[in-house]
Structures are given as structure tokens and as C-alpha cells.
Amino acid sequence: MIRSEASRAVLDGWDDMKRLLGVALALFAAVNVIVYVVVGRAVTPFERILRGLREMERGDFHVRLPALRGREAGAMGAAFNHMAAAIESSLEARREAAESAARLAAQQTLTGALHARIEEERRALARELHDELGQQVTAIRSLALAIARRAEDDGAMRNAVQALTATANQLYDSMHAMVPRLRPLALDSLGLVDAVADLVDDWRLRTTGIRYETALAPLGDEPGDAVRIGAYRIVQEALSNAVRHARPARIEVRVAVEDGALAIAVADDGIGLPDAPEHAGRFGLRGMRERAEALGGQLQIASAPGAGCTLRVRIPLDQPEPLR
């Protein structure tokens, strides 16, 4: 007789199940350990990349990553280093640009102050020439005329006095021709537009064979002294360069206010300028550019060989006076 004992079969099945569960748990733990180790080794490069990004966030753009294991990590590390180098180069370029802009601003301020100082010295010198030397030369002429009247019978004395009178007259004329060059009197008494018109009329009388045309619009409020002097000197130098070097048949001068800026144009139909004119001994062009930039403006030159030259200057009218 064979009889089955169900309780024993259940106990045997349960024992087998416990052994299987133990093996499964051991395998699961082993797999977890293996996955942890493998994943840890795999994400270690990414943690290094994350630390590099945090260092860059704090402003350390000199950070670089070493060669990282793995194809993806290596590519990301190389891209990170390239990005850091590009950012560092950009910041360095910005710093150099800011330093250059600061140096340029300081140079423009210094140039403006130098021009202002030169104009003050010219004004003082013109006043001294007109008041002191002019009176003295007039006194010499008067004395020479008085001596000439008393020495009518002495031929040698009369000749000497005539020579003295001629020399005094020449000195007087030279002084009066020098004073407007040092300080244009019309600029103080008439304003910029009338002073430019007077300057063009003076060149019209001094030269032949050149037709002068002007387009001088009223400015409304008279600009500051620095702008008036700078604009006048630019027109003066432009006319001088055109007459002396361009061999023109026509010269046109335009002055107007456009969009809050003083616009000046001097055009001629002469032989034009050479290539790189400011590097060919043309100190007048560099001086005009420096004057315009010292006042916050800009100078543009359009020229072609045999096709004349046009010089344009724009000077903002809201610029502060330069330091003296």
C-alpha cells in the first residue's frame, strides 16, 4: 500500500523554492554590484565635465578637461575644451577692445585739450600782435614820416627814412596778414558761417582761375567755441590743400546742420588724391581727421585719380567742450 503525504510534499516544495529564491537574490545582488561599478565608471567622466561647467559658471574660464575615457565622453570633453578656449579668446578680445577704446577716448580727450590750448595761445598771440606790435609798428611809421619831413634837404637821410618807412609798412602788412591766420577775427564777431564765407572770399581774391561756390545754410544757434574753431580750421586746411595740390578749376564749400550734427563738405574737380593719402606725407589730412575725432566727429574722403576729391566731416553739436 502506498499513500501520499501532502504535507511533506509541500515542505519539500517550499525548501526548493527557498533555495531558488536565495540563488535569485544572490544573482540580483551580484548584477546590481556589477551594474553599479560599470555605471559608476561610465559616468565618472560626465561628473568631471559637470565640475568643469560649474567652475566656468564661477568665472574660471581657464579650466580644461583631460582626455576622458569613452567615445562619447571624449567627444564631450573635446567640445568642452574648445568652448572654453573660444570663450576665453572672446573675453580677451573684448578686454583688449575695451582697453583700446579707453586709450582712444583718452587720446581724443588729450588731442581736444591740445587743440584748445593751441587755439588759446593763438588767440593770445593774435591779440598781442594786433595790440602791442601793431601800435609799435604804427609808431615807427609815424616817426619815420616825421623824420622824412625834417630831412627833405638831405638826400641820404631821405632815402634811409623811405627805406625805414617801406620796411615798417611791410611789417605792418605782414602782421595784419598773420593775425587772421592765428585767430580769425570774423569767427568771433560774425559767427561760423560768415567766417567761412569770408575765408572763401579771401581765397577768391588770392587765386585766379578757380571758381569758388558756397552753400552755407544758417546754423540757428551758434556752436560752441571748440566746434567753431575746429570746423573753421578744417575748412581752412581743406581749401589750402585743394588750392596747393589738386590744381582744380572749381571748389565748392558746403556747411549745414543735419540731424543734430554740423555737416561740412569741401569738394574740388582736381587731380584727386593718391592711394593711402594720409600715409603719403599729407599731414594736413591727418590733422583734419584728428580735429574731427577730438570733437566726437568723423572725416570721410572720397577721391579718385583725375576725378577730384570730396572731403566730408560730421561733428555732433551736443559734444561737451574739451578739457583745457
CATH topology of the largest domain: Heat Shock Protein 90
The amount of beta strand, in percent, is 5-15%
What integer is the average pLDDT?
80
Strands in their spatial order, largest beta sheet: 1-2-3-5-4
Q: Specify the biggest β-sheet.
A: 5 strands, mixed
Radius of gyration, in Å, reads 44 Å
What is the number of strand segments? 5
Q: How many H/I helices?
A: 7
* CATH structural class of the largest domain: Alpha Beta
Second rung of CATH, namely the architecture of the largest domain = 2-Layer Sandwich
Tell me the CATH superfamily of the largest domain.
Histidine kinase-like ATPase, C-terminal domain
- In the predicted model, the low-confidence regions spanning at least 5 consecutive residues are none
How would you sum up the global shape? rod-shaped
Task: Estimate the helix proportion, in percent.
Answer: 55-70%
What structural category do the secondary elements indicate?
alpha+beta
- How far is the N terminus from the C terminus? 131 Å
Integer count of domains:
3
Query: How are helices and strands ordered from N to C?
Result: HHHHHEHEEHEE
